[in-house]
Structures are given as structure tokens and as C-alpha cells.
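hi! just following up on the protien thing from before. the input was this:
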Amino acid sequence: MTDISELYRAEARAAEARARMNATLGALQVRLAPKNVAREAIGQISETGARAVEASVSAARRHPGKIAGGVALLAAALGHRHIGGALNFFRASLRKKPKRAVSVRLCKWVPRAERLVK
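and the predicted 3d structure came back as:
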């Protein structure tokens, strides 16, 4: 009888092990479902983003001059074409206009002569 009772105990242990394994597999399937993985990733990303924003704000409060300089540098980099165009416009208005040759008829019998006009 000892052999039969040992067999029943072994079968009971195997059934318990199977039940534990099935429970573990079920938990893994729930945890690794794409929807749950996405939710967990979004939660971690939002936590990381919040920490980064807090660190940035505290750094900006400690160094406002550096932040203002960085913003000015970024604005200059993004708007360099507009700034260059405006500078060229002002430079052109400050430059003296070159003298141009104009054909003028002094009188009927003298052929056209060119003279410089200011």
C-alpha cells in the first residue's frame, strides 16, 4: 500500500505544480498583452517626461541668463534668413547709389552725348 499512497502523493504534487504553472502562465499572458505593455510604457514615459520637465524648470530658475541666451541663439539660428534679408535691405539703403550714364541731346545738330547724372 505504501507504493500506492506514494503514487497518489506524487500525482497530487504534480497536479499542484501544474496548477501553479498555469497560474504563472496566465499572469504572464495578462502582463505581456500588447495593451498592457503599451500602458506600462506610456506610464514610464510620462513619469520620465515629468521628471525632465521638473529638472529643466529648476535649472531655468537657477540660470535665467543662460536660458535667455539659448533662446536668443535658437531664434537667430531659426530666423537667419530673415535677419540677413533685413540687414541687406538696411545696408542697401545706406549705400550711395552709383552714378549712371544718361544719353542727353544737347541740341538738334549735335549727336547724343553721354554725361553722368547724379
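The radius of gyration is 43 Å.
The mean pLDDT is 82.
cheers
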